[in-house]
Design goal:
With about 280 residues, the chain is an alpha+beta fold. The protein has two domains: about 130 residues, no CATH class; about 120 residues, Orthogonal Bundle (Arc Repressor Mutant, subunit A), CATH 1.10.10. The protein is about 50% helix and about 5% strand. It is built from ten helices and six strands; from the N terminus they run αβααβααβααβαββαα. A four-stranded antiparallel beta sheet has the order 3-5-6-4. Strands 1-2 form a two-stranded parallel sheet. α6 packs antiparallel against α8 and α7 packs across α8. The longest helix has 21 residues. It is globular, with a radius of gyration of 22 Å.
């Protein structure tokens, strides 16, 4: 059993939560986020450091009970294979060849995906009625000031990772805790946002919150962002993340499925099933 599986108590029996926030949902998006975060050249990826951080994200996703799709695991295996190949001595004939770089195929895949994603985002920002109309650019001096940046899923996950490290480190042994109500965590979250409308990410979590309460509140936040009830932004890259309440009419129907799942017994593990 890995660290992430053992650090989250069973009192929070949530179903697997599928990561789907706009177009930021796949392993290539996570890799691009890590490359941006580390401020490295996409054509010269420090594969050892990026692989380690990628695996840390997967551990946290499992702890959050997020649905880690198979493509994430395939990419993890690919990164570890590339890392191992880079440790092997290169043949003399291939030392000066670009094709000898084990990262070459991954870099090409990332560059192509980045181009398509940027094009999709630019198109999505155009008004629906004018997406097929391309006009002459405006005078730069008359252009409006850029607005806040929309926060990606991985920025939120990283913010949670930092918050957990500061406030509630993972236990080194099993601790029996009182069950946590996801609905109660969600109601506290919305009460704070209804009062202030826009709140910094870390201020949404009480100082005395347990690790389990932080995780439950974060899962509610993710779902409400996905539904469009909340908006996560930051003024610029690496600025504090702010969460804004966009509507007072929040639909809680999705939560009923989660609460139903909490009443169901957890399926046996492979080891238990074989006993």
């Amino acid at each position: 059993m890995n660290h992430a599986e053992s650090s989250l108590p069973k009192q929070l029996s949530l179903p697997l939560y599928r990561v789907r926030l706009d177009v930021f949902e796949g392993p290539l998006d996570l890799l691009l986020h890590l490359i941006k975060k580390n401020e490295v050249d996409i054509t010269d990826i420090p594969i050892s450091a990026i692989t380690e951080q990628y695996l840390q994200y997967l551990d946290l996703m499992r702890e959050l009970r997020l649905d880690v799709a198979g493509e994430f695991l395939v990419m993890a295996a690919t990164l570890m294979l590339i890392k191992s190949r880079m440790l092997l001595p290169a043949d003399e004939e291939e030392e000066d060849s670009e094709e000898a770089d084990p990262r070459r195929e991954l870099v090409q895949q990332l560059l192509e995906y980045q181009r398509y994603r940027e094009a999709a985002l630019a198109l999505a920002e155009r008004p629906l009625l004018h997406r097929d109309v391309f006009v002459r650019p405006r005078d730069p001096e008359l252009a409006p000031e850029p607005g806040p940046l929309r926060v990606e899923l991985w920025d939120l996950v990283e913010a949670l990772q930092q918050l957990l490290a500061r406030r509630s480190p993972a236990p080194v042994h099993t601790v029996e805790l009182e069950p946590v109500s996801v609905r109660a965590c969600g109601e506290r979250l919305l009460s704070r946002l209804a009062l202030h409308r826009r709140v910094r990410f870390e201020e949404l979590f009480d100082e005395g919150s347990s690790r389990l309460e932080i995780v439950a509140t974060f899962l509610v936040l993710l779902e409400l962002v996905r539904l469009g009830a909340l908006l996560a932004t930051q003024e610029h890259w690496q600025a504090p993340i702010e969460i804004e309440l966009l509507t007072d009419e929040v639909n809680w129907d999705w939560l009923e499925e989660w609460e139903l799942a909490e009443t169901q017994p957890e399926p046996p593990t492979d080891e238990e099933a074989n006993v």
